[in-house]
Write a structure and sequence with these properties.
Length: about 160
């Protein structure tokens, strides 16, 4: 099984649908690392997922200065922005490990900055920009928990 799936979005509506489809796969305890350049759509995808979980989409903003936002929806959602997290010490201070061990859904922007700190199982979503409104989202499973999720996205 190739544990990868690519979704192509022609516009934000498609991204919204993809976020909603992803959220139906979540049961709690999922860890999703979002990777992509500035403005690629990491926060936009988090907003789509959160909205589908019953969270007010307007509450979802880039946690760039706060580093972590917590939202209450069908599941607790922890939204990290690791862009300004300097090193492992700051990672620990932020309590990331404890949250990743919990039952909330963790969405981490810039997860590629801390690949070595990520747990053995997580879902990677790499975003590529193809035009003003076009994006692709490539999901890769790290650890077998997410292989099943990817298989469901493929079908
Ligand atoms: N199909 C699309 N999917 C997602 N975002 C889109 C799409 N089309 C256009 N956009 C726009 O791209 C921008 C994505 O911004 P967003 O804040 O989500 O990026 P980001 O990856 O979180 O950036 P940063 O690294 O600064 O946090 C938004 O302005 C959004 O409106
Ligand atoms: Mg962002």
């Amino acid at each position: 099984m190739t544990a990868t799936y690519t979704f192509r979005a022609e516009n934000e509506g498609d991204t919204e649908q993809f976020g909603s489809r992803l959220s139906t796969q979540f049961s709690g305890g999922e860890i999703v690392g979002l990777i992509g350049t500035l403005g690629s759509g990491k926060t936009r995808l988090v907003r789509a997922i959160a909205g589908a979980l019953g969270i007010e989409p307007r509450d979802v903003v880039s946690p760039t200065y706060v580093l972590l936002h917590e939202y209450r929806g069908a599941h607790p959602v922890f939204h990290f922005d690791l862009y300004r997290v300097a090193d492992r010490d700051e990672w620990s201070e932020l309590g990331v490990d404890e949250i990743l061990e919990g039952e909330g859904i963790a969405l981490l922007e810039w997860a590629d900055r801390f690949r070595e700190q990520m747990p053995s199982s997580w879902l990677e979503i790499a975003i590529e920009v193809h035009g003003e409104h076009q994006r692709s989202f490539t999901c890769t499973a790290h650890g077998n928990r997410y292989e099943k999720l990817i298989a469901s996205l493929q079908s």
